[in-house]
Design a protein that fits this description.
The structure is a homotrimer. By secondary structure, the first copy, chain A, is of the alpha+beta class. The first copy, chain A, is built from three helices and six strands; from the N terminus they run ααββαββββ. Chains A, B, C: This is Cylase.
Chain lengths: 150, 150, 150
């Protein structure tokens, strides 16, 4: 159930969360694009799940998440290609249980060494974000759909 | 006339509005890209006007706005293509009359089923946003220019 | 040294800064893309430095910054091409000295007159932002790396 946002205090709280989510994604995706698998995996909960469109089944837990990133990054390095994941048009809906339902447009830009960038994939990302004991945001669940596979 | 923003209270108010505008556009464009014509049209005022670069004259009123979206979406479905409208680099200027003058860069990404995405159009969007009786943002006027037609 | 952000007041302050930085970049890049060299240069400190990936050495000071933009814009006009600089996925880290360390993904979209847009360059931008006597943000230092030249 989504929380209703009415008055100025609520709207300030929403602005806080909205900025925080954008900042979270900026760092989160920079870690991914840098191949920093372990640090990236630590931005998921310990039982975090990532259901990508291209994997046969969801990836669960930090060890598997980190390994996936490290392998993908090694393949891209081999190929001489830099990927950038941009989470844009972020729609944040605070839930009654304190979690955040976040839907965003995910653009992946691929640039080959010495070549021209291209839009590699256009996706929609559906995240459930929660907070750890220190109040930091973490991804508990991520589901991604690709626009080329409707 | 644009409001001057000076002290911390004003800057908090600006942050509230800025987050709200970004959230508004995220939902607004998701409705558009989903072909939800009627819900999309309800994010305009009842006399809302959309002056797109490709229409011979501005589209006015919710019925016409909804019909336009539904037709465009049917054509894209027929063609097997998904469009995504991203309103980025949002510049929000609160006006003395309480409206918001918002200029943004609009990117349209098109993805054919089974194919590669491409940047279909790059535009600049000039919106006037106002609030309804419940304080929700609505588009009163939208003017769009295309970068390929300067 | 980066400031730690803990409580609600700090988080509100962060939201203020985050909105302000996004708004700053929206205007800053619109000036650049419009060829408004002098106004753009005034969003740098008087001794502001821009270290672009394509210049042999950093560009320093407003006169040189403005001249660079005006020349680049004249060349694009000659060529019939509109560029748009989008600073996305903004990561803002307030520093102990009051400055802001900002890292973002910079996308340059190029649209030829009568043609299709393309992603011209994908870059990472590292800025140091400071405030002038009136509290307005200015770029003190900018360093940009290109994804095609790793």
């Amino acid at each position: 159930m989504t929380v209703q946002i009415d008055n100025a205090a609520d709207r300030t709280a929403f602005a806080r969360v909205y900025a925080e989510v954008q900042q979270f994604y900026a760092r989160h995706m920079y870690l991914l694009d840098s191949g920093a698998g372990r640090e990236w995996a630590e931005t998921f909960t310990s039982d975090g799940v990532f259901a990508p469109p291209s994997a046969p089944r969801p990836i669960a837990g930090r060890a598997a998440l980190a390994a996936g990133v490290e392998q993908a990054h090694a393949e891209l390095r081999e190929k001489g290609e830099q990927h950038r994941h941009l989470l844009l048009s972020v729609d944040v809906r605070p839930q009654m249980d304190g979690s955040l339902a976040v839907r965003s447009y995910a653009q992946i830009i691929a640039t080959p060494r010495g070549g021209e960038p291209r839009v590699h994939l256009m996706c929609v990302t559906h995240d459930v974000l929660v907070r750890d004991a220190d109040g930091r945001l973490l991804v508990r669940h991520r589901r991604v759909t690709r626009d080329d596979r409707p």
